[in-house]
Please model this.
Amino acid sequence: MGRTLPSITQMFMEEEQSFARFRRALRRSDQLALDDLFSAARKHLAAAAYASNALPMETFLLAMLLEEHKEVLRLRALVERLAQSGTDG
Amino acid sequence: MAEFTGWLLDIYEDAADGLALWALADDGRRLRLRRTFAVRFYAAGPDGELRRLWQYLRAQPIPVRLSRTERQDLFHPGLLPVLAVEVPHAPDQPRLFQSLQDEFPRLNFYDADLNIWLRFAAETGAFPLARCRFDCGAGGRLLALEVLDSPWDLDPAPAPLRTLTLAPDCDPTHAEPRFLEAAVGGCRYRLAFEPLRPLLVNLSALIQRHDPDILLTSFGDTWLLPRLLEASSACGVALPLNREFGRGTAHRKARSYFSYGQVVYRGPQVLLFGRWHIDRRNAMLWDDYDLEGVLEAARVTAQPVQAAARTSPGSGISSMQMLTALRGGVLVPWHKQEAERPKSALDLLRYDQGGLVYQPITGLHSNVGEVDFISMYPSIMVHANISPETTRSEGEPSTDQPPGLIPRTLEPLLNKRIALKQRLAEMAADDPLRPLYQVRASAHKWLLVTCFGYLGYKNARFGRIESHEAVTNGGREALLAAKEAAERQGFEVLHLYVDGMWLKREGTTRVSDYTPLLEEISRRTGLPIALDGIFRWVAFLPSRVNEAVPVPNRYFGVFQDGSIKTRGIEARRRDSPPFIAEAQMELLTILARGKDAAAARALIPEALTALRRRIRQLREGRAPLEKLLVGQKLSRELEKYRSPSPAAQAAAQLQAAGKRAEPGQRLYFVYLRGGGVHAWDLPTRPDPRGVDSARYIELLLRAAETVLCPFGISAEAVRGVEPGRLFPLPSRRGLSGGDAAAAGRRRIRAFSGEVSDVMM
Amino acid sequence: MNTSLSFPLSSRLAVIIGDRATIPRMLEAAAELALAGPLQVVDGGNCFNAYPVARHLRRRTAAVHAALGRIRLARAFTCYQMVTLLQNLQPGDQPVMALDLLQTFYDENVRMAESRRLLERCIVQLTRLSRAAPVLVSARPPAEVCATRLPLLHILQEAAEALYFAVESSSAAQPAPLPLPGMETSLGLTEG
Model:
């Protein structure tokens, strides 16, 4: 008895594919930024599967935000460290 | 003959006596016993139909005893009124049942198509190689049988089995073998195939003199035994392959079938009576099992030895479940009717899922503990009492009910496996009994791995989709409980994969540091869990296509005891040429000498030297052809390929040479220059000068990148070890120029942004 | 309302025959029916993909979960199970949808005579259910490898009170709409 629903990975690829026209019309640099967003969402496929949202794109969008926020936190820490070393030095 | 003790070797239906049995007595005699054996089956359905069945059975010539009674159908509450049909002479039953199938389509039949071993095991408690006390009358009539041991004994008295090994002197698919190599009783014989008559006479004498219990062959199913039997009838020389006098061998044709989402190929089979024929080239999982594994599988599943050597672990589990049912008075349905109970579309979303598979945090990590649930899915079935008759709805364990059929079947197997593992852990590394325990543990592992999938198999008699879903749901909840426990105790969770976790915590480097965590997880989930080991260092790898994307279960690392563990990399893949796999392991073995990640890094120049030597070997054509074999599965019928894969090209070559290539079969070939391949099973060998060494060098470089890139060595640097190369091949990332900068950026992010202790 | 989804909602046995492309259209129909009220689905082809159903619902309502909760689904993996599933359904005012009804009957491990007998039992059940509520059945012709099973499709066609043939669309981008009620002419898929 194979599974009835597509796997979360298949759903992810389907959702990514549904933005193919959007992506194509973006500038090259923006395309790469968009790809980064999808790569970020991909890191949370297990959690997205567990969430079992009927509209998984909602979860993927939140996963993108999550990774963006982590990046903000990382950069903020970096800036604070640099500012610290600036005042120290 | 009177009374004696010994081992039960074989049983089968016998036209004259009902049942023939072979016993190996303590004094070494092989004795043929016989007894009558009655079998029972049942029918249920509308009253009128049952009455008609009664009349029909009364009127036909096979003697039967009929009665109305009540029995338990696992899928229905209460007792089911049935017509019981007892056939006093067991060999009559299959024929009788065959005639009923067309005549009474509206009836449900139970216990109707079971093999004789199962019925006998259910009635007597016997199993293959059981220690028994046999009480015999005149002419070998078995009066009584007492079983003296159990399949769950850890140290059964070993039966002194005699084995005759037979192998042609070469692979008959390549060339016509000239000699038959035989070994028995400590002696080796080399018998010429031509002329045939003396071969048959000598072989026949060997069999008669040594009277082996096992014929252990190479290519016996596919070539050797059919060939010998053909010669035997052509030359008029009797060949006593069977111990049973005057009975022919049983043959089963090859077939391809679809199982668990892939095409599986099963070769033809030649089965014997009174002796076992095992073709080590045709046995399922032979590498893991070995002969002892086959015997252990037969013992615990009560499948005939010849079947246990050839069938999938799924049939073994099925056999065990049916035995539990028969012994517990539960009916075994001929066709399962039970269907899924309706669930909402929301529940489908929640429960139609597999295990949790995380994306690891890629890169190199030090002092990482791997914690695994032991036989997670079977343990969940036992612990949460998951069985078709106990699962009320998905994921809802029913602990208030008595243990169900599936837990009752699995529990002794699970306990035996855990006991064996404990014993192995306490054993000295050079204990001579160690390999024996290991193959037994391996046989159990395969059965336990399969039992979960089998619960969801559509034709499984005691399968049920809700139970299947309850198991994966239990697995997801247990893994998350484990993750939460680990994080509460300050661990960082690097990776989670279905039933395993990879953890690290500053200053946690000893096995005992993990004890509190293991205890908490076990307490919270009720499942057994163990520390598989602590890695000195481990590298989780990103996708080949996109460095920003981590891939689950693709890693390599070195445990504190120096042993290497790899998953998903070239060295593990069954399609990798041995040369590539060995080269990758060579690099890993060099790096594994480093006591920590920094020390491993210092060994990279030595690894590069080894890589250079391997490249030279390939370029100069010094790698043996056998080591360059690529093994790929043929996924479908040859005609269905639009653009033939290398495996399909190989299949086409074999077909042109008059050889068979079935879907599901793994085909071996060598890559040739110009994009072609040469199938290894062709009678001719490829010209070594035509081998596509550039392609193999490319495979080698990729395998080297897999191992070296996590240490901060760039792909370009790996490729740079080959000075002779003028034009670099396209990078494995397959990126065009415009993407290169982005790829660089991603790599930095992947290796520095995410990971706290990267060795850059 | 989308014209391609104007299914006959009268109490009768409607059968839609088409290739695999029919499934997404059936799923859309399931979404539409779930908007209106409870719906029973039996799935013989392991094809009830809830994601497109949810997407379709999202375009029509904010209460996606409530609508999904109104769909009761059970899957059959063997033709024996299909018979059991249909026998267990209670007739009521809820529409019944049987997806890919014949798929399990095309299994070559079950003898043709047995498949035929079981299918006839299924049809008895479908007819029984259609007295009380609309019953919508989809079926695919057998694949080439089991073409001998074609008579099963004919048996189902015979039993239909309304029969539709989904147009096999040549371009995947533009799926053909399911035929409207009344458009009951064969499009040459079978000779009926």
